[in-house]
Design brief:
The complex is a heterodimer of chains A (417) and B (300). By secondary structure, chain A is α+β, with helices and mostly antiparallel strands. Chain A folds into three domains: 2-207, 3-Layer(aba) Sandwich (Rossmann fold); 219-302, Translation factors (Elongation Factor Tu (Ef-tu), domain 3, Beta Barrel); 309-413, Elongation Factor Tu (Ef-tu), domain 3 (Beta Barrel). Chain A is 19% helix and 36% strand. Chain A contains nine helices and 23 strands. In chain A, strand 18 and strand 19 (339-352) form a beta hairpin. Chain A is globular and about 70 Å long. The two termini of chain A are 45 Å apart. Chain B folds into two domains: 6-191 and 288-296, HUPs (Rossmann fold), CATH 3.40.50; 204-283, no CATH class. Chain B contains eight helices and ten strands. Chain B has helices spanning 6-24, 36-49, 68-81, 90-95, 113-123, 189-199, 263-271, 290-296, and strands at residues 28-31, 58-62, 85-89, 128-130, 147-150, 178-181, 210-217, 220-223, 238-244, 255-257. A six-stranded mixed sheet of chain B has the order 3-2-1-4-6-5, with helices on both faces. A four-stranded antiparallel sheet of chain B has the order 8-7-9-10, with no helix packed on it. In chain B, a hairpin with a 2-residue loop joins strand 7 and strand 8 (220-223). In chain B, helix 6 (189-199) packs antiparallel against helix 7 (263-271). The longest helix of chain B has 19 residues, at 6-24. The chains are: A alpha+beta (417), B alpha/beta (300).
């Protein structure tokens, strides 16, 4: 069975919690004691119907205020696939949590209320999802029951959405008319919308193919050097990491970056087992023919072309998480893959207004929830590829010295000249 | 390129996280409870660093109310892996007057172990404790980061967690602060069992159906032997065919009536179950946000 990680964004009013509740409930992933607890808690609050949001809103503050503050992860499976949902808050002040939740997913569900159509929030969510390099969007036009199950309503939203999203993204988009509350086209096909011939949401999620990195050239960041120094393994020296692109075979020629030294793979291990090949996604330990200097933070890549970029000046799209402002010239710790370097922002090129998507120039600092294009200079060169081609190779976070907090996230982009 | 199976993908993710723990912290440890999740975690750690030995010790917080099967299993595993074991005793915390034992029929040392845990971490200067908690277990856990920062008092602040993006984990901290890391966050109960089956991992016998003297309280079967839980006069001891779905200490481990004698049976039983595994845990039923409240105090 394969795994699909997807995010859902939207506010309570869109019926997001109801949709998730419906998916979990109709796929029999909600257990009796969880349901009883939600019923009990709903009653305590004086709600007449069971509030399905109480299944996902776990924190005391969230339950008290009736809002989702942080990303919640939900798990369910059908006989065809396993799913991890990153359920993210939709309000503008939680943009950072939405970015956090979407960063580990391959698909995004965007909810549109059939009565309201494409609104400012839809634009913002779609743009953020595309910024994070998510290549599949499912637009669920919800509350079709309140719009008379009218095909014209659905078609208009479809047209409006495509016109909007094509301004900034080539992402695959699929539209499904649903009623999360009544269950139309969520798990079971709807009798109320015979004009819709497409898949139900669950059917679509079960069968969609998501694409991985653009390239297929072997890439693995070294996390840890395995050196047992024991009687049984006196000279063993293995390089442990997770393959983030491509495939490797025993006998392959590799090149270590940034040093450029090359060698040949002599062994591939996962635990006690040895393998002839390994591929993207696997965590392995690799041994090499030559005793060369490799340490954490280095990249092992297939020899020959293409090789990653190496530079200490990169352009990135940054999302800022904290009220402590990003100011050009201030020193941060930059964590990129398994490497950690000092970095300063040389220049803020522009900030993007996440409601209108307009570029704002002449900005001299960034604060919480701001998204901007900046130039970053690092003390040591970064080995990277563009984020759009490979997320592991092109993502980084900003850590603030002093507070140790993760204050921002960046995605390396081609230079705009 | 063909995607990995879900178990291979989860395994690879957990091994990656364990290696980040080893690389980013000065002195990490694994919290070992003897339950299946911490057993799987230890097994993954063994795989992550092989042929090196585990680069960190196992820490067990012993409430003094353990099933003997758990302790036997623990000691066997430690000697098989050649690992280091550190035990923190809740009894010591009681004797030193740091905690006061709960009274009454539902008394449990579960809450007290937080103090023993924090003392043990401090005594050995551990800066990160890896646990086998999963996000599907409980709604507060569903929101916790994989690298979860704790302040000097061991407290979790759910309202102000560090953003955690992609697979970039931030282990930076001040002196005296520490972290909890949860490498199997994204596994479900069924994933754990399927993995145990796939890898042929040995488990304590408690997980398989056996005959045991037990009694019923609030719809939940509890162990009457070993005789740790005080019984009301109305609570009658009966011998039943039971197994544990999770293992905590005796006072908070519910027993399930079962006929599952093999891992295949257990997988079939869980796949058709309509109650979550923590449904049998008395410690979670104390209030709506019991887990969040305990975590804020520094609980696991």
């Amino acid at each position: 069975m394969k795994l699909l990680r997807f995010s859902t964004a939207g506010s309570v009013d869109d019926g997001k919690s109801t949709l998730i509740g419906r998916l979990l409930y109709d796929s029999k992933s909600i257990f009796e004691d969880q349901m009883e607890e939600a019923e009990r808690a709903s009653k305590n609050r004086g709600n007449e119907e069971v509030n399905l949001a109480l299944l996902t809103d776990g924190l005391r503050a969230e339950r008290e205020q009736g809002i989702t503050i942080d990303v919640a992860y939900r798990y369910f499976a059908t006989p065809k696939r396993k799913f991890i949902i990153a359920d993210t808050p939709g309000h503008i002040q939680y943009t950072r949590n939405m970015v956090t939740g979407a960063s580990t997913t391959d698909l995004a569900i965007i909810l549109i209320d059939a009565r309201h159509g494409v609104v400012e929030q839809t634009v913002r969510h779609s743009w953020l999802v595309s910024l994070l390099g998510i290549k599949e969007i499912v637009v669920c036009v919800n509350k079709m029951d309140l719009a008379g199950y009218d095909q014209a309503v659905f078609s208009k939203i479809e047209g409006d959405y495509l016109k909007m999203v094509r301004q900034f993204s080539e992402t695959n988009v699929t539209f499904i008319p649903i009623s999360a509350k009544l269950g139309d086209n969520v798990v079971n096909a709807s009798d109320n919308m015979p004009w819709y011939a497409g898949k139900t949401l669950l059917d679509f999620l079960e069968t969609v193919q998501v694409s991985g990195p653009a390239g297929d050239s072997f890439r693995m960041w070294v996390q840890w050097v395995v050196r047992p120094i024991s009687a049984k393994w006196p000279d063993f020296r293995g390089y442990a990491g997770r393959i983030c692109q491509g495939e490797i075979k025993v006998g392959d020629r590799i090149c270590v970056q940034p040093s450029g030294i090359s060698s040949v793979v002599t062994g591939i291990m996962i635990g006690e087992q040895s393998f002839d090949t390994a591929r993207q996604g696997q965590s392995v330990t690799i041994t090499l023919a030559d005793d060369i200097d490799i340490s954490r933070g280095d990249l092992i890549a297939a020899a020959g072309l293409p090789q990653p970029e190496i530079s200490n000046l990169v352009e990135i799209d940054v999302c800022w998480f904290r009220s402590s402002a990003l100011v050009p010239g201030k020193r941060y710790i930059i964590r990129h893959a398994t490497q950690e370097v000092q970095g300063i922002v040389k220049e803020i090129c522009y900030r993007v207004n996440v409601s209108t998507l307009e570029k704002e120039y002449g900005v001299d600092s960034l604060t919480m929830n701001d998204i901007a294009r900046v130039r970053l200079k690092t003390a040591d060169p970064l080995v990277y590829e563009y984020y759009k081609d490979n997320r592991n190779m092109g993502s980084l976070i900003f850590i603030e010295p002093g507070t140790n907090d993760t204050v921002g996230a960046g995605m390396i982009v081609p230079e705009e000249l | 390129m063909e995607q990995l199976t879900h178990l291979k993908e989860l395994e690879a993710e957990s091994i990656y996280i364990l290696r980040e723990v080893a690389a980013q912290f000065e002195k990490p440890c694994i919290l070992f409870s003897g339950g299946k999740d911490s057993i799987v975690l230890t097994y993954l750690a063994y795989k992550a660093f092989y042929p090196s030995k585990l680069p960190f010790p196992l820490v067990h917080i012993d409430t003094g109310h353990n099933f003997p099967e758990t302790l036997t299993y623990r000691d066997d595993l430690v000697s098989k892996l050649g690992a280091e074991l550190i035990v923190g005793y809740v009894q010591d915390s009681i004797d030193q007057g740091k905690v006061v034992e709960e009274k009454g029929y539902s008394a449990s040392r579960n809450k007290l172990q937080t103090v023993t845990l924090l003392d043990t971490l401090a005594e050995h200067k551990f800066d990160c404790a890896c646990g086998g908690a999963r996000r599907d277990e409980e709604k507060a856990r569903a929101k916790e980061r994989i690298f979860s920062h704790r302040d000097e008092f061991g407290q979790w602040n759910p309202k102000n967690q560090r953003p955690e993006l992609w697979d970039l984990y931030n282990a930076k901290k001040d002196v005296g602060e520490h972290f909890r890391a949860f490498p199997i966050s994204n596994w479900t109960e069924l994933d754990v069992w399927q993995y145990i089956y796939q890898e042929g991992i040995e488990l304590p016998s408690l997980y398989y159906t056996h005959r045991r003297k037990c009694f019923l309280r609030d719809g939940q079967w509890l162990a009457a032997e070993p005789a740790v839980i005080p019984r009301r006069e109305t609570e009658v001891v009966e011998e039943k065919e039971v197994r544990c779905r999770t293992i905590g200490d005796i006072t908070c481990t519910g027993l399930t009536l079962s006929r599952a004698h093999s891992i295949e049976d257990i997988i079939a039983e869980i796949a058709s179950s309509r109650i979550t595994e923590r449904g049998g845990r008395a410690d979670d039923k104390r209030s709506e946000t019991a887990m969040e409240d305990r975590k804020k105090q520094g609980y696991f």
